[in-house]
Fold this protein.
Amino acid sequence: MTEAAGWYPVGLSAGIEAGTSAGTRVEGVELVVWRDSSGGIHVWEDRCPHRGMKMSFGFVRGDHIACLYHGWQYDAAGQCRLIPARPDLNVPDAIRIGTYPVEERCGIVWAALGTAGVLPEDRETLPVRSLYIERDAGAIAVDLTAQHAEALGDRLYRLAMDEQIVLVALQPVDKATTAQHIVVDAITARDAGGGRKAAFAWAQRYRMNAEAAR
Amino acid sequence: MSDLTLYNYDLDEHCYKVRLLLSILGIEAETISVDAFPGKEHLRPPLLELNPSGRLPFLKDGGLALFGAEAILAHLARNYGTQSGYLPVDGIGFAESMNWLMFSAHDLDVTSRARRQAIFDEPGDLAALRRESKMKLRIMDDHMTMREFDDVHFFAGLRPTIADIALFPAFALSRDYGLDHDEFPALRRWARRVRRLPGFINMPGIPHYH
């Protein structure tokens, strides 16, 4: 993360259930997003220091995440706490994984990957989906602006869609791929199911058009 | 009439579908190992005489001989797991499960070809196969995203069916052919539910969380 600044959306809060992990990328940098069994969310470098295995392939046990290869377990601060092959070993402090500041706002998980920026104001939302589009984030931002989306801060857009307010957070996955994390403002949502389906249909159409326009 | 013999190759995801359903439904079957790779035993006599389609899995049930995962799954669910609901009988559940069963047989064939290219070095353009596979998994992820709005967590009907069993390996094994799970959040959640079904078993490439 060099020129990068501020907060990046990395997933929907509802998309990462307690006790699960998922891999993702921001500008090509591999991250693991995981939620411990008490609901705490974590965004780390996606690499076990032991053999370089992706932590996102691993599994969550309580407030630890374990590597799939040899079961090395890390606590919520990224510190290795257990090496199953050496259960009596007091694990050295040097065995740890890099962590990023993380916040949940508007039903979206945000990680600070560069110098701190501005987080969006929190509001109650209903999750729609994370949509992966084969276009670069710059082109999509231009596109959303052309559709009268209002920029609400770092990588967050507000769209009026029929009666509803839809929020779209843009995650630059790599140079050719962007994730849209889409939620409906709960106060304006038509109803829990129908309103989300309308936003889903918008997103489907959006991706088809965006990818056809490449 | 439990006189089941499954001709099985452990690394074949279609054979895994049948092993998985047998385990979930608690059905006993004799298993005969076939050296599909590198031996291609299923494409030579005497196996080819027994099963001229050359397709695995192959199941003998008394005098009945069935080939291909889909027919075998339907047969097992219909005749050995009537109470399980894995082959729904109601109109919508039946229709939807058939729809996704056929999707697994036809559309997901590209994922099998991608995997065979990647791990058995079968001829093929892996980059193109991977890309087509991604588009198929997208269709599945879109479907499960929609289902979640109605609080339904399986592909057809309201409960797990043979459609879930048939669709599971293409996603669960996608890393074998170089496609990560990052872009399919609804499939991740669905796969977690499949993994938790009583009787669930793994195959090589589908990690066991120790």
Observations:
- Residues 91 and 143 of chain A are 50 Å apart (CA to CA).
